[in-house]
Amino acid sequence: MTSKTSRRALVSVSDKSGLLPFVQGLVELGFEILSTGGTARFLKEGGVEVIDVSTYTGFPEIMGGRVKTLHPKVHGAILGRPDLPSDAEAISEHGIVPFELVVVNLYPFAQTIAKPDVTVEDAIENIDIGGPSMIRSAAKNHAYLGVVTSACQYEEVLSALKAGEMSLALRRRLAKAAFGMTAEYDRTINAWFEGLETPGTEEEFPERLNVSFECRQRLRYGENPHQSAAFYVEDGYSPASLAAAKQLHGKELSYNNLLDLDAALCIVRDFSSPTAVVIKHNNPCGCATGESLADAFHRAYEGDPVSAFGSIIGFNREVDVKTAERLCEPGRFVEALIAPAFAEGALEVLRTKPKWKNNVRLLEVPGWDNAGRLGLDYRRVTGGLLVQERDIAEENEQDWQVVTERQPTDAEMHDMRFGWKVCKHVKSNAIVFVKEGMTVGVGAGQMSRLDSSHIAAYKSGDRSQGAVVCSDAFFPFRDGIDEAAKVGVTAAIQPGGSRNDAEVIAACNEHGIAMVFTGRRHFKH
């Protein structure tokens, strides 16, 4: 650290929150303050005596302020090591006075490009050059000085200086935060430049992927109590995402809660009519539309009431009082709810029922009509990352083809449309039985599509009479259709594309089942 007889701090910030009392505290400790441009004016107006950097360097700000701190006397004062003879000689020869503290934050590039009317020129001018240079220099030389990059650090730094000086451990933590800031700043700029690519020439999957996530919440544990875990949110996350959720009530969210809440949100977001979904272990065990939200919930819950015990519930409408009262009926055990909103009366019901009080988590995610902005889907594998587009593209029914002798009825087509949306959210191999706008049986995640068919048939029981069957991928053999026919299924929807399609179509014709090929698979692994 520098001698206390020559304490100097370089202060140049864009965000001036909390700056004045912090700098006043430095002055009381005997610091001289060097500053630039708007920061210098701000401090002078606050009564702080400031030395302009241009006075210290003997070189004026030029090019509209683009060049002001990019000077050897500035970076020499930051990077110099006074106890190293060669550095000490250069410091003396060139009239450099080392800094003890560098207080810098950056031009608001992310906020600038978030403006709807931002121009390329405005964005370019908000790319900070001198700031990151000073921050990186100071962070590199943290053995000799401290670098402060956020207002949240002011109190700790000032307290340390009042107690004597900043410890090496503190300076190292500040340096780590500084490099994190500049890394994130560069990632944001890089992403913006990628977005400027001429349509048709941009890389959908860049050679190097730069992503950044901020820790939102440290969780009690992961999937199991012996695993530690945390929830990170992506920069610029969509308002249609779990990252935008606000918890209104209930216990702390768990790792598994968050996985299931995301699954619930993804499903109900696909529907326009009142819809409810019941999630267990990342799969829908019940999903339904209805005349009202309360009706949709009742039907979704009845889709598989045994599996619904300890579930996550998702809604695509504001939860009203009637729906809240149905949720609280005897025998229900729910872990969490997610919806665009909760009516005040509904919140009162859900917060005061004995079994719900202080327990069931209520999450609100308003304004989710921006699902198209959800971005790419990432999945971690050992040593790498798999990246793909999300399976959110609109279905084009003009591509659907009835391949059987019998045409589906209007009611069957309605159920197939509904079931096809649900099916893409069920872990493959996925078989979903649907009747009258609700799931009556779901077979998920089995190694054989026939096994999934057996499970769906078992779950549906007598309700399979007159139901439709939805399969996320083609039926490889006729056995899945034969199984569905045994329990009374009358229509089927699947992608098609198997070399045994003719055999499967023949089986449908034998059983009088109408079948639609969509031409699109919906595997979910």
Domain count: the total is 3
| Rg, alpha carbons | 31 Å
Number of beta-strand segments: 21
Oligomer: single chain
CATH superfamily of the largest domain: Methylglyoxal synthase-like domain
What is the class of the largest domain in the CATH system? Alpha Beta
Q: What is the correct CATH architecture of the largest domain?
A: 3-Layer(aba) Sandwich
Strand percentage lies at 15-25%
Question: What's the quick description here?
Answer:
With 525 residues, this protein is α/β, with parallel strands linked by helices. It has helices spanning 19-28, 37-45, 53-57, 72-79, 85-93, 109-113, 120-125, 130-140, 154-163, 168-195, 255-268, 293-302, 321-327, 344-352, 410-423, 449-460, 479-486, 501-511, and strands spanning 8-12, 32-35, 51-52, 101-104, 146-148, 213-219, 229-234, 246-249, 275-280, 283-289, 311-315, 334-339, 361-364, 377-381, 384-388, 401-402, 431-435, 438-443, 468-471, 491-494, 514-517.
Please outline the helices and strands.
Layout: E1 8-12, H1 19-28, E2 32-35, H2 37-45, E3 51-52, H3 53-57, H4 72-79, H5 85-93, E4 101-104, H6 109-113, H7 120-125, H8 130-140, E5 146-148, H9 154-163, H10 168-195, E6 213-219, E7 229-234, E8 246-249, H11 255-268, E9 275-280, E10 283-289, H12 293-302, E11 311-315, H13 321-327, E12 334-339, H14 344-352, E13 361-364, E14 377-381, E15 384-388, E16 401-402, H15 410-423, E17 431-435, E18 438-443, H16 449-460, E19 468-471, H17 479-486, E20 491-494, H18 501-511, E21 514-517
Parallel strand pairs: 1-2, 1-4, 2-3, 4-5, 11-12, 12-13, 19-20, 20-21
Antiparallel strand pairs: 6-7, 8-13, 9-10, 9-11, 14-15, 16-21, 17-18, 17-19
Helix pairs in contact: 1-9, 4-8, 8-10, 12-13, 13-14, 16-17, 17-18
